[in-house]
Amino acid sequence: MIKIAQVVNIENNLAYIKVARASACGDNCASCGSACTDKGHILKVADNGYAPGQLLTLTTKDKNLLAYSSVAYGIPLLVMLAATLLSYRYINIGNKDIVSAVSGLLSLVLSFYILRQLDRFIFKDSDIIESIVPYRGES
């Protein structure tokens, strides 16, 4: 995947580049009624002579990006299904349907913390970025 990024700041031999996140409305947020306020994602990369405001072409490793996306959506789904099925089968207090539904929803909170730890210690931006080159005006 190829994205256009912009250098925001340079500090301590690190360049902070802003990459626009993909959204449901595409690049035309003015035509969308959702009023999203997401301004993009900031990445820290090694400074290779970049200047603030410079546009860059960022190429990502599609294989790693798809793997990370499947983890981000797959772990919460699996944890929720497991919690719902296990609580329905083994918990015998109150209404089994309501108890299993509530445990499934609470398990989403648990999966949030699991993903947070994975993101902090395992997933790195450098695993996703393949190359960063100055923007040449091509689309």
Can you describe this structure?
This protein has helices at 62-90, 96-121; strands spanning 2-11, 14-19, 41-46, 55-60, 129-134. It has 139 residues and is an alpha+beta fold. It has two domains: 1-60, no CATH class; 62-127, no CATH class. The protein has a five-stranded antiparallel beta sheet with strand order 3-2-1-4-5. β1 (2-11) and β2 form a beta hairpin. α1 packs antiparallel against α2 (96-121). It is elongated and about 65 Å long. The two termini are 12 Å apart. 5% of the residues are buried.
Provide a short characterization of the protein structure.
By secondary structure, the chain is α+β, with helices and mostly antiparallel strands. Helices cover 40% and strands 24% of the residues. It has a 5-stranded antiparallel sheet.
From the structure above, extract its key features.
alpha+beta, 2 domains, 5 strands, five-stranded antiparallel β-sheet, 24% strand, 139 residues
List the helices and strands and how they pair.
Blueprint (H helix, E strand, L loop, with lengths): L1 E10 L2 E6 L21 E6 L8 E6 L1 H29 L5 H26 L7 E6 L5
Antiparallel strand pairs: 1-2, 1-4, 2-3, 4-5
Helix pairs in contact: 1-2
